[in-house]
Amino acid sequence: MKNLFIIMCLLASVGIQAQTIKGRVMEETEDGEVALPGANVYWVGTSKGSVSDANGEFKIKWEKVGKLVVSFIGYRSDTIEVKSTDKFVTCTLRSGEQLDEVSVAARKQSTVMSTQGPLIEQLITGEELCKAACCNLGESFETNASVDVSYADAVTGAKQIQLLGLTGKYVQMMTENMPNFRGLASLYGLTYIPGPWMSAISVSKGTGSVINGYESMAGQISVDYKKPRDPELLSANVFTSSEGMYEFNSNFSIKFSDKWSTMFLLHGDWMKEAHDGNKDGFVDMPEKTQYNVMNRWAYKDDTWYLQFGGKFIDEERNGGQTSHDGHAMIDEKYGLYKIGIDTRRYEAFLKLGYLMPQYENTSMAILVNYSDHTQDSYYGPKMYNAGQKSLFVNYIYQSIFGTNPSQMYSAGLSFNYDKYDEDFRDPVFNYGEDISTDFINMKREERVPGAFFQYTGEFLDQRFIVMAGLRYDYHNIFGSIWTPRAHIMYKPDEFTSIKATFGRGLRTPNILAENSYLLASAANFYVNGELLGKNPALLDDLKMEDSWNFGANVNRKFELFGRTLNINLDYYHTKFNDQVVVDNETAYNKVNFYNLDGKSYSNCYQVEVKYELIPRLEATLAYRYNDVKTTINGDLKRTPLTSRYKGLVNLSYFTNLKKWQFDFTTQFNGSGRLPEQGGIADEYRVASRFDDFQIMNAQVTKYFRLWSIYAGCENIGDFTQKNPIVNSHHPWSDTFDSSKVWGPLHGRKFYIGLRFALDRKE
User: Which has the closest alpha carbon to 497: 51, 94, 181?
Assistant: First the structure.
């Protein structure tokens, strides 16, 4: 630690002493001024510049020239005078150019790649979310090349994220930079955030910052909710689809004074029709009802910033066999095979920040997030009832070394608490074995206090930035945890950024909570080859999952025919030292969990290109290749149900004055391996791999002054996975399996919706 301190002091001593100017770029619209992300800001006659972030904010080193140029393709540039004593400046650009009395609307960036800091981060704005139906977080990535979302099984409606070719449990899910949707909420948490509630989604690849904990292994996804101080006073969204789904969302804010404000957010969705499009006797999507309510408060003055609030979710899912139209074969002894999942979740959060006026560039904050989640569920003869209480507390102190704003540090303390109470019934059914079917109870408490330190240094006129962090946590079950992470960015010019990231991530496996969808099959759960239903103490034998991640990113912008061509290149390598392998292929009637004995890794390569082909027509093209392998039962194999590649083409066009908008997306999904089925009879054996397939989606939006109407079609080609359930006509047999899902389960879907938004008048 002494050597580390000396290094930090040396870095601070060579930092640039120049004054940092901060500012914001705004766009002038009919309804007022709004933030303009992605605007170029540079000093007249130099190549020293910056780019505004998702909030329109930027920072730049003071130069004696004293004149800043602010520009954006399709907007009128502006030049502002800046003094060395200025700390914050604002510039407003017009959202179109006047040409012969004809107004030409300009296109804003709806997805912004961060070039301000060393983290490899992409921000999905609210405008991008409106390109598709986006009923919830799980449907927010249809136009995103980095994140995949797919169904985990064919009957429960559970969805899983994939990032860098790895499943969602290796992605740290956060709401406003606070870890959330862990454990019991990991499978269905993507549906707990309605799309209209979100103002933006931040997707970062790699291990992320040590400030947010040690659990990020493949990346972080953080959702920003709409805030009480936002310009939006009232909004509403009504949605319905050809599948019989109905949804209503609304939020409204009240501003009591310049300091106090509050917002209420309401949501309800209903899916009451049973569909069996593939005629296998099971409903393709479960019937579902969800009610979701949130209230948040905000206070802000010159030195204090406070946010607090609460959220409540009530959800019921019912699926399984259906007797409609006589598709299901009803067992004479046991009847229909049914599935039910009832969930209640309470959340509360607090964020308190203090800007210390007596110390320049110094602040402190405390973040608190609490959740209480209960889930009662049954899957045919199997039952899983569980509760989880979680508490996350994070204290952050941020300051600079000496008087140099280019040399910053963050230090703090954290505490994470999880209490699990799980009742599990996993009968060995119809196998001819005499094994008790009684409930077993599993209780576990995790207490993890931690401390962290993170250094951020800017050199060479902010063209070279280093972020290095280290955190120490003590887990009451697994002992000491050290998590080092580093991020580097170099900007040779204002159009190019090169980033690299390296770090460690760890997480506690929750095999029941994270894999409960596998209960919708005949296979029983085993740990290290022994039946879990007879000995719950087997869970104590599993180690923490441990991985190292290395990543690199190159972002380059070119001016081509008066418009910006943006090229983004990625490479990431994730290596597991310890991993809990989910082996459901060595034996067809067993799901065996055990720690890795061999190699497991992921290599992910991606290229993404954005360009405005003609005025107001933006194209995004992307290609990603996944090389993901795991040692299963002694053999290194490609991870099952993972496509080798993914391609994406997204076209977005709006007419002059943005009266109409047209969006079209095609996803190209590559082939992959299916799990083997050791010992199963040939008549029930599925193929060893699945083929390439494509999914096309389209949406048309008509804008009016205060409201808009949108209509679209998902899965235009009506492609579905054939026979997604193994032996669906005999679900009470030992060969029934609904987990081998690799493609869409429902066919062509039409939808229509109405949005209304009213901004407050200051």
Answer: 51
What's 158's DSSP letter? Answer: -
Under the banding of pLDDT at 50, 70 and 90, the label for residue 435 is low
Taking only the tens place, the pLDDT of each residue in 43-58 is: 776 656 777 876 778 8
Query: What is the model's pLDDT at position 324?
Result: 59
Q: Which domains does the chain have, with CATH numbers?
A: 20-95 (2.60.40.1120), 111-757 (2.40.170.20)
Contacts of 479 (CB under 8 A, 6+ apart): none
This prediction has a pTM of 0.86
Tokens encoding 293: 């309510």
DSSP state of 684: G
What is the per-residue pLDDT for 3? 47
CB 354 within 8 A of CB 183: no
491-507 b/e with 16+ CB inside 10 Å = b? beebbebbbbbbbbbbb
Count Cβ atoms below 10 Å from residue 333 Cβ, excluding itself: 5
* Cα–Cα distance measured from residue 738 to residue 660, given in angstroms and rounded to the nearest whole number: 42
Q: Which residues pair with 42 in a beta bridge?
A: 49, 69
Q: What is the DSSP letter of 676?
A: P
- Give me the residue label for tokens 């063209």: 463
Identify each DSSP E strand in 476-510 by its residue range: 479-493, 496-507
Q: Which residues contact 365 (CB under 8 A, 6 or more apart)?
A: 351, 352, 353, 354, 395, 396, 398
Contacting residues for 621 by C-beta, under 8 A, at least 6 apart: 608, 609, 647, 648, 649, 650
* Confidence label for 4 from pLDDT (cuts 50, 70 and 90): very low
pLDDT at 75: 65
The 8-class DSSP code of residue 66 comes to -
Short-list 366, 332, 282, 323, CA closest to 746: 282
Q: What does the alpha-carbon distance between residue 47 and residue 44 come to, in Å, rounded to a whole number?
A: 8
- The answer to whether the beta carbons of residues 191 and 136 sit under 8 Å apart is yes
> Percent of the chain scored above 70 by pLDDT?
91
CA distances to 13, 37, 91, 462, 705 from 30, in Å? 49, 18, 17, 36, 9
Q: From CA 372, how far away is CA 93, in angstroms rounded?
A: 46
Separation CA 759–CA 231 (nearest Å): 5
pLDDT of residue 46: 66
3-state secondary structure string across 331-371: ECCCECCEEEEEEEEEEEEEEEEEECCCCCCCEEEEEEEEE
**Residues 613, 649 contacting (CB under 8 angstroms):** no
Q: Distance of alpha carbon 748 from its chain centroid, rounded?
A: 26
